[in-house]
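Give me the 3D structure for Bcr/CflA family efflux transporter.
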Amino acid sequence: MSATPQSSASPNISTPEFVAMTACLMALNALAIDVMLPAMSEIGRALNVSNPNDAQFIVVVYMFGFGFSQLVWGPVTDRFGRKRVLTGVLIAYVLFSLGCTLAQDFTSLLIWRFCLGIASGGTRVIATSVVRDLYVGRGMARIMSLVMTVFMVVPILAPMLGQQILYVFHVWQSTFGLLAAGGFAMLIWSFFRLPETRPPEDCTPIDPASVLKAYKTVFETREALGYVLGSGIIFGALFAFVSSSEQIFNDVFKRPDIFVYCFAIPAAALSIANFTNSRIVEKLGQRRISHAAVIGFSFFSLVLLTVVHFFGPNLVVFMALFALIFMNFGFIGPNFNSMAMEPLGRIAGVASGLLGFATTTMAAAIGGFIAHQFNGTLTPVVTGYVGLGLLTLIIVLFTEKGKLFSAGEDAPDKA
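Predicted structure for Bcr/CflA family efflux transporter (415 residues):
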């Protein structure tokens, strides 16, 4: 299927601008996580955090707010449309980012971060819902891959931006000021350029019975539920690395000076995989690509664990294998996303919210648990990767009734 719009609400906006805007909306989340990574140790010291591992909660509480809020944003945007809700959440994103700069203790910072996550959850739900409003099947997978290609530029650049801002302003609060500026820029851009993609006649009631019915539909749809759970499990790997990355390069490799550059390598591998996926998915299909990627993710994680166990940590080997792991990860995300969303077009907001909940709250809990086991070695994180890969493979096998690499998406697209 081509990637031409499949909705009567086709936007009066070019595809490149649409992809760029959607990617930047999703990137506000990545920016909120990654830009302050170089400042985590400084924040912990400034706010008198006793256990260095507790600084990871700056990421974890944000992800819980981000994840849980999407269960609410889904029904809200299905009821009131995409654009009005987006305007509100972007205003909140700016205000809560500024609130983080006012925090005088660690507890208040965590509260502001949780609120920021709630606002950011709305941007993620709406971005995914808008794509599903307009595209289905392999076309959606292609657009999401392009979105993720642009989106992944942010994890590459954000830590570098955060580090440079710290060098210029010498205060950790400046990193949150950058978030406010990014949110304001997206508020202006989307307000004037993004059309409403949810026709009024498609808006669904927000009463509890209708919301519960919509969520019941998701849980009763085997394909959707399976790939929602699979996404939640495998995305735990991403958050485990993000939460522990600064400690890995500081404590294991003793190279904090190259942290931002090493952090960019797996992000670049993800971006390459996303772009490659956009070029091949319409020919090969989501299942063939993502199923092979889950196997590849598990295999390279096992290889890395074996190397670490027998030979110890080596920065070059670690980065090479980690790039391969994340390249496989890049072929999983957009394809799992499109397969979960494909049969749920009528309740795209609810479906996007539940998918976002799984891939953030569930993943943050899993990734946060793995990262908190950090003991000065690579073993906890890499062992966690092996377990997550194998568990995801089991979920996929259950979802597909034991049959991998099928061309199930060749069936007629569901609206």
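The two ends are 14 Å apart (CA to CA). Let me know if you want a second pass.
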